[in-house]
């Protein structure tokens, strides 16, 4: 088996997810409860990250955060997220940065969901470090300042190219930071519309349009001279992006001046 993805049936994929969840550092109870609440409460809860993806976020942010602390002695502005929804992923970033107490900025356009999200953040006492900015990310990203070690793109796929351009042009990604771009497989349809017969009929046009967008986007990221791109078969496909080695001028690292 030389391929990078095992040929799982849906049943085996569920089993494997469950196995990974149960054999990884457990999600804190508050996140578990919040995930279950979202599933029960919101019709479109399928847009929330999976529990295992939450475990992955906690692990990654615990791993990345100390590196920045040791390099710069500052932990401000660690995580930027585009796509808050009910706040599950923001809670995971919060959990993973407890030691460094980093600020987490999360952007979303849906006021009716954010009303619940903000209330829940206040109840859980996490609004000391999570800042929610409401509005279309194309404009709110222009208002965000700082350099982020983790940037998570998990919103409207057809704007990902715009978001990446803003992030790179405004140097929002720290010199040693990483952008995680979520759902780059579009449920498998990035590879072609003939794949994945399991998508609900009503959701298929949405994912077919996303598949087409992501095919172009993945190619464009790969050809972008500013960045190094790695697509991984994690969850619904995650692209990891960092600055291309040597792209940033010496001294362009604002954090080293702090
Ligand atoms: C996949 S969900 C985010 C899920 C969340 N990160 C999680 O793991 O629970 C995508 C979110 O992007 C938001 N969104 C869509 N278009 C947007 C836009 N133009 N600007 C900001 N947010 C947008 C939606 O309102 C939705 O809440």
TrEMBL record:
InterPro entries listed in its UniProt record: Cation-dep_OMT, SAM-dependent_MTases_sf, SAM_O-MeTrfase
Superkingdom of the source species: Eukaryota
Keywords assigned by UniProt, alphabetized: Methyltransferase, S-adenosyl-L-methionine, Transferase
Gene3D superfamilies: Vaccinia Virus protein VP39 (3.40.50.150)
Keyword Signal: no
CDD domains in UniProt: AdoMet_MTases
GO biological process: methylation
GO terms, molecular function: O-methyltransferase activity; S-adenosylmethionine-dependent methyltransferase activity
One Pfam family cited in the UniProt record for this chain: Methyltransf_3
Family per record: Belongs to the class I-like SAM-binding methyltransferase superfamily. Cation-dependent O-methyltransferase family.
Protein name (Swiss-Prot/TrEMBL): O-methyltransferase
């Amino acid at each position: 088996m030389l391929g990078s993805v095992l040929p799982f049936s849906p049943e085996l994929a569920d089993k494997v997810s469950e196995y990974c969840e149960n054999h990884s550092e457990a999600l804190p109870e508050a996140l578990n409860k919040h995930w279950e609440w979202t599933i029960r409460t919101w019709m479109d809860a399928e847009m929330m990250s999976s529990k295992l993806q939450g475990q992955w976020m906690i692990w990654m942010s615990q791993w990345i955060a100390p590196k920045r602390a040791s390099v710069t002695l500052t932990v401000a502005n660690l995580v930027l997220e585009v796509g808050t929804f009910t706040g599950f992923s923001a809670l995971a970033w919060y959990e993973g940065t407890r030691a460094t107490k980093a600020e987490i900025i999360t952007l979303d356009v849906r006021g009716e969901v954010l009303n619940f999200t903000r209330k829940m953040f206040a109840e859980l006492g996490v609004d000391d470090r999570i800042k929610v900015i409401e509005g279309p990310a194309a404009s709110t990203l222009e208002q965000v300042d700082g350099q982020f070690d983790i940037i998570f793109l998990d919103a409207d796929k057809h704007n990902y190219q715009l978001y990446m351009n803003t992030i790179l042009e405004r140097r929002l990604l720290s010199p040693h930071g990483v952008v995680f771009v979520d759902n780059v497989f579009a449920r498998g349809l990035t590879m072609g519309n003939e794949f994945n017969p399991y998508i609900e009929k009503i959701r298929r046009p949405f994912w077919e349009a996303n598949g087409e967008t992501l095919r172009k986007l993945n190619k464009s990221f790969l050809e972008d001279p500013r960045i190094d791109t790695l697509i991984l078969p994690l969850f619904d496909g995650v692209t990891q992006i960092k600055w291309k080695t040597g792209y940033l001028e010496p001294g362009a690292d604002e954090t080293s001046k702090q």
